[in-house]
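To the structural biology subgroup,

Please find below the input and predicted structure for E3 ubiquitin-protein ligase CHIP, which we are adding to the shared reference set this quarter. The sequence is reproduced verbatim from the submission form. If anyone notices a discrepancy with their own records, reply to this email rather than editing the shared folder directly, so we keep one authoritative version.
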Amino acid sequence: MSTFKDLGNEHFKAGQFKEAEQLYTEAQAHSIQSQSRTDPKVFQNRALARIRLSNYSDAESDARKALELWNPKKDVSMKAHYYLAQSLLSQRHVGEALNEAQIAYRMALSLKDSSAELISQFILRAKQAQWSARETARLRELSSTLAAVEDLLDRQLETDLADLNAQVEAGTLGATGRDEERSTIERISQSGGGNTAQPEYQERKVPDYLIDTITFEVMHDPVVTPSGASYERVGLLKHLKATGLDPLTREPLTESQLYPNVALRNACATFLEENGWAVDY
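Predicted structure (tokenized):
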């Protein structure tokens, strides 16, 4: 006999997320009525259904409840951490979302779960969102500063032109001299404002050593092979699963022979913090 949870799973697979959400809720209510322990998977599955329905606040609550019922440090809670990360990022809680995603990523690697690749891509998106938030704040502050400078220049221009007219009226400056002075004052004012507002134009380029030669994306968890070449972990693991060979030397290679490239990982992290656009490079 199918349980409410099983029926919810069937509706979810059919893309009927609202019906799945309702059935998971029924499963939860049934466990309360029967005074049995609520299955953490009910909250976990309902969290995903609610993510599909863009109900991120309730999805967050469900993911947290699943983690509360499970030991959040055990690998079995990997999906709950990932769903919590998704719901948090959608609510623009970027820092906590990134932290939860990194926990889920480490668990997925430990479990050798195929979702590690998806979580890896999510981490890059979260880092991009983190950079974007900082960049928006920076540009807002810069815009405010530029507006203040331009206002100051406008007022200075008005003062200088008024002084110039006063000299003409006093007879200390002729019409020709006035026109020359006016031209100079306006040119200086425009030059000052232009130099302040001019954006910095530079080519956006990711250093080659930060790019994975398998996926051609910026790395965030690089590992080094015995041959000395570094690759993004999930991309290389996927390659090894398919071929079992070192991409460079074509010699047999196993996961146990890989080591984290800590220096390169730190370099990638620093670069992404300052250049979130590179995720879409």
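Summary notes: Residues 4-113 form a domain with the Serine Threonine Protein Phosphatase 5, Tetratricopeptide repeat fold (CATH 1.25.40.10). Confidence is low (pLDDT under 50) at residues 194-203.

Regards,
Lab coordination
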